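REQUEST FORM: STRUCTURE PREDICTION
Request ID: SP-0412
Submitted by: Lab K.M.
Chain count: 1
Length (residues): 383
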Amino acid sequence: MLSGSRLTHHLREFNHHQLGFTLCCAKTVHLSYFMLNPPPVAFSINSFKNSYSSSSSSSSSNLDFGSSLVGCIQSNSPRGGEIPIHPDTFSHQEDDREPPSEQLSSIAGGIVALGKFDALHIGHRELAIQAAKVGVPFLLSFVGMAEVLGWDPRAPIVAKCDRKRIFSSWAPYCGEMTPKEFEVDFSKVRYLSPREFVEKLSNELGVRGVVAGKNYRFGFRAAGDASELVRLCKEYGLGAYIINSVMDRYQDSRESGPSDTKEQGQVSSTRVRHALARGDMKYVSELLGRQHRLILIAKEKEIFTTNRNRVSAPRSCLLNLPPKVGRYENCSLLIGGAYSVVPCRVLIDTTHIHLELDETDVCINNTSQEFQFLGIDFGDSGS
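STATUS: Completed
RESULT:
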């Protein structure tokens, strides 16, 4: 059986332009991957079942993933300027992580960016850029913070399975190096003092240096600041690179949300969340440095349905944070392989996401119950 990472490699061996999605003008339709030109190909995707069970609370572990995928597509709207769904989009899951020993060998000698990387916005990208200037770039992320600190659960801005695609899009800014994410269990570092944290970076993880913003704080109860980070790194023989925050150029004309003592006009994940809550997608794109992508996954009874050129999905299919209820023009439905994009309008209500397609001339032959994906890129129009 193929593991999640091997399955990704297996899919990469096919021509991306032979991948796609299909829609049928029937009451109910399943959307899925398939091969165009080759004869029907059967492969096991049981690893999808296991990997998604930990990334989405609505995932099921009782699905049958053994069926082959077959179909056809006829689309008149490939758009070369769009960012395709990256193959890794469907493999970067909790169960797809490397064992700890392999992770340590991969991060040793690297330069780690420090922060809370929720939105992966342009400020986070700048940290990765600076890390790439002095070494192999990594983003050090803490997992399990909400559970440990008792925060209310909330949807991520970026779907976990979509993060590798975004890191890949940063490569041209990072000397053609794709930053990698290294995850640390927050419960294991929560009570570390600033000194103990830097000691862990040096002795246990073996990093060569760190990059942080000037407002970065670390250690138990945020006891350490950027100046102490520099001092401790020097003591432990690490490079420390402190950069200015990326400021929000539109802060004077846009509301950033409720007052925050840490808010000094810099680009932040909080600003992205407030912009999504207002449905201001142009502002969201400016903060992210890309269009916001919404990822949906359907399984079991949560299927996508269609009526003529309208596709609908329940909100329970969402893997990340949507904009507010409203209508959004100039959006794109990503339906599989590279450049397979269909222009659409998006209507979000309290229970469903509805897509009004500009064109539908596709067919499908699929009776399996494998996981099924949709990606929606939002244009710059507001609700």
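NOTES: The first strand starts at residue 70 and ends at 72.
Reviewed by: T.R.
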